[in-house]
Design goal:
With 383 residues, the protein is an alpha/beta fold. Helix content is 40%, strand content 22%. The chain is built from 13 helices and 16 strands. Helix 1 packs across helix 13, helix 6 packs across helix 9 and helix 7 crosses helix 11.
């Protein structure tokens, strides 16, 4: 099949959904093109885009198009998108994030080319999006709701990446439930070799001079106030176990949060910073750690942790049950430092519990969250 992925943000070889879908579908023998803007629309990353606007990467084509206009990096349209689609003549087009103006351009193409199958997904939920008046009532409940109402009938399926996204799509955009289908985010493991995994553990602990029997926790991502890393650090500090618990933090710190974050970790000797690291390095950190803890807003790092077979701790939420594979995870009460301290003490005193959690994660996590499995099933459903 000729497959096109249209996404607002794309960097080569990163660990996002569009990267894995394009790479694996190309490996399966399909002709895959990723279409994205030739400017950086992300407020989180300052990565320099490829100088070339049309090139191949891991067997798929990346085509960066100019924009006819761009307002606040939210409202934009592609220049020459119709011509590009006509030239490629795709069998399938998937839009990553249907709440966008280019959805109107794709719907227009569909009317002139009824044979093409359109798919899209949603990633937004109430915790990440619609958290102020403008975002909720103007951006989502008015503008994007109108756009989605106009284009939704053209799409065979609209996917949601987790239960909270499904609920948000129904409540905010009034999308019919029978139109929505699950498409979990995932990851991949670079190695399944137990010896290599043990080497990761040995090397990282040696690097930071961490004793073999101490508890190593990791967390990270796009670090801001909403990640609640302060809650985790304060819990370790007050647990009475700060000489036995070590916290590895990876990722970039949002500029607005940087000063507060620096003050938070100053004079703390159980925190080890790794900065922004690539997909392979994140996997190595997971293999070297005993537990991954994420207490704030969703990140694809959650699914990656489970895919890599590491025990996890998340804050309780009605929509997070899909992360619990019956033994790999512990939920803590939201914003409850005492409950978190209790769970940390329990795991520190019970290494066998961590081993049992790891066994469940290793047995079930890869099957559910491996992009190889996810993409194979998805692509077969498109045939």
């Amino acid at each position: 099949m000729k497959i096109i992925h249209i996404t607002p943000i794309y960097w080569d070889d990163w660990g996002y959904q569009e990267n894995y879908l394009a790479k694996i579908q190309a490996k399966l023998g399909h002709q895959v093109t990723v279409i994205c803007p030739n400017v950086n629309l992300s407020s989180y990353h300052n990565s320099i885009l490829e100088k070339k606007d049309d090139y191949f990467f891991f067997g798929f084509r990346v085509k960066r198009l100019q924009l006819t206009f761009n307002l606040l990096n939210r409202f934009y349209l592609y220049k020459n998108l119709q011509k590009t689609l006509n030239d490629i003549n795709p069998d399938v087009i998937m839009i990553h994030g249907l709440a966008c103006l280019p959805a109107l351009q794709v719907a227009k193409y569909k009317k002139k080319n009824p044979y093409v199958d359109l798919y899209a997904d949603f990633h937004a939920d109430a915790l990440i999006s619609a958290n102020n008046f403008f975002s909720k009532f103007i951006l989502h409940k008015l503008i994007w709701k109108i756009v989605i109402k106009v284009v939704a009938k053209n799409f065979r399926k609209i996917y949601y990446t987790r239960p909270s996204v499904k609920r948000f799509s129904i409540e905010m955009y009034n999308v019919k439930e029978n139109k929505l289908h699950p498409l979990l985010l995932g990851s991949e493991k670079n190695t399944l070799d137990p010896d290599e995994i043990r080497n990761c553990r040995t090397q990282l602990r040696s690097k930071f001079n961490i004793p073999e029997d101490d508890l190593v926790i990791c967390t990270g991502g796009k670090i801001d106030h909403w990640k609640k890393i302060d809650l985790l650090i304060n819990a370790i500090d007050k647990s009475g176990l700060k000489n036995k618990i070590h916290l590895i933090i990876f990722g970039s710190v949002e500029s607005k949060y940087l000063e507060e974050y620096k003050n938070l970790i100053s004079n703390i000797n159980f925190v080890y910073e790794m900065g922004w690291i690539n997909e392979n390095e994140i996997e190595n950190v997971y293999h070297a750690s005993d537990v991954a803890i994420f207490l704030g807003n969703h990140s694809v790092l959650w699914e990656k942790a489970i895919c890599c077979g590491i025990p996890t701790i998340f804050s309780e939420d009605i929509d997070r049950g899909y992360l619990d594979l019956n033994g790999n995870n512990i939920f803590v009460k939201n914003n409850n430092i005492n409950d978190l301290i209790e769970k940390l003490k329990y795991l520190s005193d019970n290494p066998k519990k961590i081993q049992l959690m790891r066994l469940v994660a290793e047995e079930k996590g890869y099957k559910l969250f491996s992009y190889s499995n996810i993409v194979n099933k998805l692509t077969e459903s498109w045939r």
